[in-house]
């Protein structure tokens, strides 16, 4: 199984990666595309990996998660798609695992064309509970949500940046790479009508601002990478399960449906979409 990170990757300084410096194995991936899904052990991230692998185009997928040996859904996919799925260990709160993944991806593929940051946390026993009042807001919860939901995905983009390249050799008109960050409608300030969930809500707002800022930098530097933010709808996963009681059945999506919709947004993304925040149905969400 390809989920162990060789020690040599751990010790190679990341600064050694230069834009455009491809390893010899890179050319063999021209024309098929390489996608990376970060936060792929379960839920929406795992479903992205499954749908990307089941596509006709035979693209390769790098799936990262905190504990590859315990990621049963990913291991099952690995049995079916052994050649096209690469599982790497990555915890967004541990920067050395992000660097190690970047180095491993460079070594194996040379570049990636699509990066999906799907990891996220809404509640954690004894650590983070969606707050119903200011009285319940704790510094530790705010910081934890911010670390996992905002800081983590941004550090992933930082380290993957030198590897993000348009797909080559396909005759594809798409001449840019795409970064898609899983946000949430509750991160919208303009759409905030209910209050509550201070930690989660504000961490997604921070993710939105950071993603928009990065999208502008890439554009200014004429680096052909587009960044978008996606709200998947309310999706039946571990994250939403404790909070589904008041969600009407027709508004609770399966992960299969939500990811189909999100992939169609990613597939259709245009240069003018850079830095935008889209809901599952393609509608733009106000900041
Ligand atoms: N489900 C919804 O209704 C909904 C609505 C709006 C937005 N979203 C967003 O969509 C994304 C996916 O949510 P989901 O519903 O699929 O949630 P989920 O089923 O709870 O999965 C969360 C994923 O994040 C990973 N993760 C948590 N902390 C991590 C860390 N420190 N480093 C790396 N990975 C970490 C988890 O890995 P482990 O298995 O290791 O814990 C898991 O793979 C999240 O960003 C979420 O905020 C979801």
TrEMBL record:
Family matches, as Pfam families: adh_short
One cellular component term from this protein's GO annotations in UniProt: cytoplasm
InterPro entries in the record: Fungal_SecMetab_SDRs (IPR051468), NAD(P)-bd_dom_sf (IPR036291), SDR_fam (IPR002347)
Transmembrane segments: none
Entry superkingdom: Eukaryota
Single GO molecular function: oxidoreductase activity
Protein name: Uncharacterized protein
Lineage: Eukaryota, Viridiplantae, Streptophyta, Embryophyta, Tracheophyta
